[in-house]
Design brief:
By secondary structure, this protein is α+β, with helices and mostly antiparallel strands. The chain contains six helices and nine strands. The protein folds into two domains: 20-97, Alpha-Beta Plaits (2-Layer Sandwich), CATH 3.30.70.20; 100-182, Alpha-Beta Plaits (2-Layer Sandwich), CATH 3.30.70.20. One of its GO terms (molecular function) is 4 iron, 4 sulfur cluster binding.
Length: 184
Amino acid sequence: MNRESLSFGRRSFLRLWKSPVTINLLRPPGAVSEEIFATKCIRCGRCIEVCPYKTIFAMDARSGVWAGTPFVKVDRVPCYLCMKCVKVCPTGTLRPIKQEAVRMGVAVVDRYLCITWRGETLCRTCYNVCPFKDKAIRLDELRPVVVPEHCTGCGMCVHACPMTDKGLGATEGTKKAINCYPNL
């Protein structure tokens, strides 16, 4: 076995253990820490089945040890915080928690992409759709400001945001003017 194939093998192996959770790709509400998520989740799919908004999906086989574990792609379908998923989780991987205490991630406004922050026009979309308006997101001189201590990471703001790095008219997979970053 030559050195190059051994090196490639190690990188591939390590990639299998790297968490797939990233910008706008988060765990459902009440999730245990990512360090123990893959070992605690039995991949039963109950959380996926019970979600009335079809927000929760399962990681595919390319995700290595994370395959079959639930995730929420907030730019595609946000979490509406109905909390039904935590009630059906048999292992406690998704723990019962109050809506206000959910911390799936935290929204961050990109002031270079946000048309309100750039002074082009007044847009209050992210503010208007936030379930914790004036607490998790507030307006400072009519510009959106996220309060990280109160942001649940539900992604309603991300989903509703009309501005992407490709311009107006959001398409899946592009960075938006507001994005949710996971709590890792």
